[in-house]
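[Amino acid chain]
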Amino acid sequence: MASMVGGLDLHRGQITFELADAASGEVWRGRLWSPDRQRVRRWLAEEVAPRAQGGEVEVAVEGCTGWRFVAEEITAAGFGVQVAEPAETMARRGRKRRAKTDRADAALLRQLVAAGDVPQSWIPPPIILEWRERVGLYMTLAEQRTAWVQRIHAECYQHGVAVPEAEIRSPTTRSWLQGATLELSAAARQRLATAYCMIDALDAQAQPLKKQLTVFGTHQPACRTLAATHYGIGGLLAVAIWSELGDCRRFSRSDQAVRHSGLDITVDQTDRRRAHGHLSRQGSPLLRWALFEAAKNSSRRTAPDHPYYAAVQDRHDGKIATLSIARKLARRCYHTLRALDPPEVYALP
């Protein structure tokens, strides 16, 4: 049993901590202002270690932004660290009875550690963390590119110019919009020119990154298995799914993988009334994006799941059909990765 247990509430401006001596019950609270790696390292070596007096220390942090460097420094100092799943940690608070503060969050984490009830969040190995960040960067670039395309559509509609949505980035459409024949104001032409320049700049970053991810996905053993086993998953999407699911032995059943993606359906029911379900979205946006993109390929007639896709589409619509296929893919990818040995899951190509 640890001689000290504690919880850390992370923010960019400060880290609120609460640690307690397991024997005496003495509680130590405080804050680390302007935290960075060196500040956390000094705090662990100069303040926590002397108080622990060589005993074991177990600390919990929520799996929000900043957890990585804090967890790495705690581990490097020789202490134990647990990364708490944010949504499950919030559920552990129970019904709200008092104001939520940083000190209360740190105290809750400390109490969960002492009780051995921390809702565990998976700590991926460095290789997965690195490629997860690359996929996240590509997703961000793709979203920003889409936003600039939508700005072009909005500007054209503002001036009564109809543009086919699928052709907004084609050279012909671009030349036409930037030509002198259209009735556009000077400000509108400037906005269109800026939007196309931003799209070019985003493509210049996104395309080499996409190639890098695709090459890695076609050579890494687990990603290669995902791409070869499941229709609609290529090298890029395989890296996204692999980096988010990783070692699936931490899930006891496939429904947990679906929930991890945020594709599960929430239900609000009381007495005989039941509201229509909606996506929980309490999971990885990156995994949800990858599964949805892969599922869209089932709209092709050559896809193995096309009959099921078409049946759901007839009853509802194409979006619901795609989401249904995405949930199926989440379960299948779970079983595929779970069947692999950990050395193969984490192997470098």
The longest strand covers residues 14-21.
